[in-house]
Amino acid sequence: MKRTSLDFEGFFDVRVTTDDAQAAQMTLSPGQSTGGPDNVHA
Predict the structure, then answer these.
(1) Which residues pair with 29 in a beta bridge?
(2) Residues 6 or more apart from 11 whose CB is under 8 A from it?
(3) Cβ atoms of 12 and 26 closer than 8 Å
(4) What's the confidence (pLDDT) of residue 7?
(5) For residues 5-42, b (16+ Cβ closer than 10 Å) or e, as one string?
(6) CA separation (Å) from 42 to 3, 10, 15, 28, 32?
(7) Assign residue 4 a region: left if phi > 0, alpha if psi is -120 to 50, beta otherwise?
(8) What was the pLDDT predicted at 13?
(9) Which of 17, 18, 28, 41 has its CB 3.0 to 4.6 Å from that of 32, i.e. a possible disulfide?
(10) What is the 8-class DSSP label of residue 35?
(11) What does the DSSP 8-state code read for residue 11?
């Protein structure tokens, strides 16, 4: 399997890593946002 590493400019902290997967947490500063107005979670 080909593996790659991505850089998300400090938004994400990797919390758990296994041979098959990673879990990460995204942290935004107060007032900071990502995505546009159509990027919502309902």
Answers:
(1) none
(2) 26, 27, 28, 34
(3) yes
(4) 66
(5) eeeeeeeeeeeeeeeeeeeeeeeeeeeeeeeeeeeeee
(6) 32, 25, 25, 19, 19
(7) beta
(8) 84
(9) 28
(10) S
(11) S
**Side chain identity, residue 31:** G
Report how far residue 28's alpha carbon sits from residue 34's, in angstroms, rounded to the nearest whole number.
Answer: 9
Instruction: Name the one residue in this structure whose structure tokens are 């590493």.
Output: 5
Residues recorded for the chain: 42
The tens digit of pLDDT for each residue in 1-42 reads 787 776 666 778 889 989 898 898 988 889 888 888 888 877
